[in-house]
Amino acid sequence: MNFEINPIFIYILNMILLILNCYFIFLFKKRKTNKNLEPLKLPYYMAGFLIKGKNSAIAFILSTVIKFSINGNISIERKDYINKKGKEKENYLIRGIDSHGCDKNEKYLYDLFFALDNPISTRKLNNLRISNGLAFNENFSQYLDELEKYAYELNLIYKNKDRKKPYIYIGLSFLDFVVSFITISQRIYISVILLILGFLILFISLRLLGENPPLGMATYNYYVDYEKLLLSKDVYSENELLFALAFDFKLDKIMESCQKVNEYLPFIKIFKNSLIGNF
């Protein structure tokens, strides 16, 4: 069905949207950036959390457990067992000693582990994961929530309620597309400019969705560069080993750069399997 729209109304609407688009582009250009900001120096697990996110939780949990061992907070003892099929299965006993030298987030994870049992074995961790997966995962989700809360306190990431601006841009781009398609169909081609601006506004909204606060972006970029530096290094210090584990480097790379990891290698494989399964 054909219908006509008052051309004067179309021009006014287009001019209003053009002004709005230009204003929002101006706001985007004038927003605070991370230029000249000093990045925060984060502990290894927070650096891993910031650049890898919650989906790599096992990496910075593992790095913290290795830190516990290096720091003398725990002892790790191999204690294999025979399963019901008569096969010998590799198993490690993790015994909590104390939490000296731990910061608040390391202590939170330390207490979380040994609230399950002390000593606790990789076999028991695996059984807990299989028999009561929801409760088991909830424990570690609470730890990730603590890290997220700490990231908010440091102004490294936005809370969901602070991410309104990208959705305003998305709404404006949607309005641009609707108005431009309708008016172009009426052979009023001034809306081609609006259509182009709509794509630009949409691109800006996607940029904003992926951004953290300026301090968070400066810190994020710093640790992305630090990750690249570690990947290029041939030898790791003990502290660099923790960052490499938190950044989820492949074990082959870590073994090449840090001989110390060799003493933990069998444990690392079994420990990861006990937390996430054998993938």
How helix-rich are the residues, as a percent range? 55-70%
Uncertain stretches of 5 or more adjacent residues: none
The major sheet is characterized as: 3 strands, antiparallel
The number of helical elements comes to 12
Estimated structural class: mainly alpha
Record field, number of beta strands: 5
Shape: elongated
Identify the strand order in the major beta sheet.
Answer: 1-4-5
Order of SSEs: HHHEEEEHEHHHHHHHH
Mean pLDDT: 85
Radius of gyration over C-alpha positions, nearest whole angstrom: 26 Å
Beginning-to-end CA distance, first to last residue? 57 Å
Describe this structure in words.
The protein has 279 residues and is mainly alpha-helical. The chain has 12 helices and 5 strands. A 3-stranded antiparallel beta sheet has the order 1-4-5. The chain has a two-stranded antiparallel ribbon with strand order 2-3. Strand 2 and strand 3 (88-89) form a beta hairpin. Helix 5 packs across helix 6 (133-153).
What descriptive keywords fit this protein?
single chain, 279 residues, mainly alpha, 3-stranded antiparallel sheet, two-stranded antiparallel sheet, 12 helices, 65% helix
Could you give a short description of this structure?
The longest helix is centred in the first third of the chain and has 24 residues, at about 5-30.
Fold blueprint:
Blueprint: H1 7-30, H2 44-52, H3 57-71, E1 74-78, E2 81-82, E3 88-89, E4 92-96, H4 104-116, E5 120-121, H5 122-131, H6 133-153, H7 164-185, H8 191-209, H9 214-232, H10 238-246, H11 251-257, H12 265-276
Helix pairs in contact: 1-7, 1-8, 2-3, 2-10, 3-10, 4-6, 5-6, 5-12, 7-8
